[in-house]
Amino acid sequence: MIKIAVKQTLGQLKLDVDLMLPMQGITAVFGRSGAGKTSLINVLSGLTRPDDGVIEIGDKTIVDTQRGINLPPEKRQIGYVFQDARLFPHYSVEGNLRYGCVNQSPDNFQHVIDLLGIAHLLKRYPASLSGGEKQRVAIGRALLSNPSMLLMDEPLASLDLPRKQELMPYLEKLAREIKIPIVYVTHSLDEILRLADHMVMINQGKVVISGHINSVWGSPAMRPWLPSKEQSSLLSARVNFQHPDYALTQVMLNHDAYLWVKRLERARGEWVRVRIHSNDVSIVRERPTQTSIRNVLAARIDKLHSVDEEERVEVRLRIGEAQLWANITLWAADELELKVGDQVYAQIKGVSVTQDDLVAL
């Protein structure tokens, strides 16, 4: 695990963070501008020094103020990708990639350029590259430094929409193939949905909530950040089988609960992440016998929260270990006489697999 327990005063911001992060996958750090996201990764990288605290990456201590340990950036084995690519303009792409390259293995170099799709750019210079191409080269340069961790500070923030769409598939591939922890700062919820395995929310220098993306996304702490039409649940599911007659795939939440989604070209047993908007979930007391909705799940009411100004009730449902939120009207909640612990059925009108388009069932 990665242990981060640091305090730092930067002007009006008082960073006070106590975190344990996984050693693999992408951890998204989310929060408003000025919340302390970039300050956190600058402390990790060694660009700034904490007033007090400890940082450990696995069994390696890089900061311990009580013991006088504060490794300089070049000894931390941490790669950093900034908002702007910061390439050397007088070096070719290949020259930029080889700058600071620790592992001179030709196979490793080839693997990185293949991973990022930049082989055709090697002889070009930064001035001739698009924003998305520059960022891919910057990521490649960071990876070739043989880091034990990769930090990415809003790498898509300076790009227009076409360039973001160009770079996103490479980031998704990076998340799957690179076996080091990646700490990814962003204010984009779409990027978090597509990339993150773990999520940290920071506000005014302090951690509001941290954990697996599914649990954080479905937490009460997350819901104020989303308008009601965007509120949703994230669930992990395993591909089970393809429908023999229709372009649909069955994915399993557990042994007793499954969902039909638009056909996925995925192997049986492969994990996928599904997103269900709260406004696409309705609640019934009895299982419907004739309905056009294909996804109906048995559930238990876990939490009820009234939003008085909207005459809306947020209902958290438990389906095995999974949590599913539904937005219903106060009228419906009163008429159904819902209370915590009730056994009900959730009718799900729309399910999407993150990275895929919505399919209504």
Automatic annotation (TrEMBL):
It is an enzyme of class 3 (hydrolase). Residues 290-357 form the Mop domain. PANTHER family: ABC TRANSPORTER I FAMILY MEMBER 10 (PTHR43514:SF4). InterPro entries: AAA+_ATPase, ABC_transporter-like_ATP-bd, ABC_transporter-like_CS, Mo/tungstate-bd_C_term_dom, ModC_ABC_ATP-bd, Molybdenum_import_ModC, Mop_domain, P-loop_NTPase. GO terms for cellular component: membrane. Pfam families: ABC_tran, TOBE. It comes from Photobacterium ganghwense. Residues 1-229 form the ABC transporter domain. Keywords: ATP-binding, Cell inner membrane, Cell membrane, Hydrolase, Membrane, Molybdenum, Nucleotide-binding, Translocase, Transport. One of its GO terms (molecular function) is ATP hydrolysis activity. The keyword Translocase applies. Its EC number is 3.6.3.29. It comes from the Bacteria. This is Molybdate transporter ATP-binding protein. SUPFAM superfamilies: MOP-like (SSF50331), P-loop containing nucleoside triphosphate hydrolases (SSF52540).
